[in-house]
Amino acid sequence: MRRLRPPRRRRPRARPAAPLTLSPDWQLWIADNLLAGAPLDELLSTLLRHGVPRPEIDAQLGAIRASPAFLAAQRHLRAARRLDLVARLHQQLDATRSLPRAIERVAGLDAERFFDRYYATNTPVVLTDVVTAWPAFGRWTPAYLKERFGDVEVMAAFGRESDPDYDLHTPALSRPVRFGDFVDRVLAAGESNDLYLVANNRNSDRDGLRALFDDVTLPEGWLDPARLQGSTAFWFGPGGTVTPMHHDTSNILFGNLYGQKRFLLVAPWETALLQSTRGVYSLVDPEKPDLERFPGFARATVREVVLSPGEMLFIPVGWWHHVRALSLSINLAFTNFVRDNAFDWFRPGER
Ligand SMILES: O=C(O)CCC(=O)C(=O)O
Question: Cα of 239 to ligand 1 centre, how many Å?
Fold first, then answer.
């Protein structure tokens, strides 16, 4: 609990605030509206219309306004409004860019420019010449990985299509499978979201797949090679996999080795427009947003980027993203940056 200076003890008031006689629902309605700055005459006329006598209304409004919970809420609201202003500043400035929805594609970036221009400014970017320099590029195909790692036991998620919360329930949906068999099942599946080898399966930490990293050359000065364990993610799945809208709690470099993946990204300063969130997940499906339920989303700037083989996306911490595989895809992602990559960015939208 936050340390607050305790209030000075006061002598009892001559006239105590009226007891709260309206139902808790009405009390909440009044407090909500007062805090939201709703016009007082509208508040009064609604209460009168619902049969609350005027003297009773005055007494109840006075009691709510004087209540310690209301006074504390006002204090927190002032702090929240200041933060909201900062978010709106970002939003407004961002919209002035000539191509506000575009994500830059760059080649020849060195570590210092990457960290200063993109990492430090929380800006996504596609790197077009990092993965192309890896021995893995062009080599990693389903057939090659099956041949090389076919006997390794991996964990993969199955039955995703019959669970609306499949991504959240990855641990429960995951089971061990021979990697070679998994490759065959993916090839046979065609377009499907039912089976997927995802980051949360932690397969890139398996001894049997360690040799994957022999095919990777980390760019100089970006990632710490001593911290690969626990900081990488291997993704393998058919076209049609969908990772629902969520944000991560660290920066990610997402390398695309094979196939195409489409990302829909929304900036963290637009978190309020995603409204309802559950943990790191948003309830909004940006492919077919329910604007009746989430009207604010109509104002969000959704940036779309399709990664081709050989491209790498920098996903900055806090950026919401929804990912659809447009074809069978193989990916390797990293979080072991040499700069600070631990953030307390958890449940920003949760009430
Ligand atoms: O490729 C995917 O399906 C999801 C990738 C992703 O969301 C991530 O790395 O955070």
Answer: 14
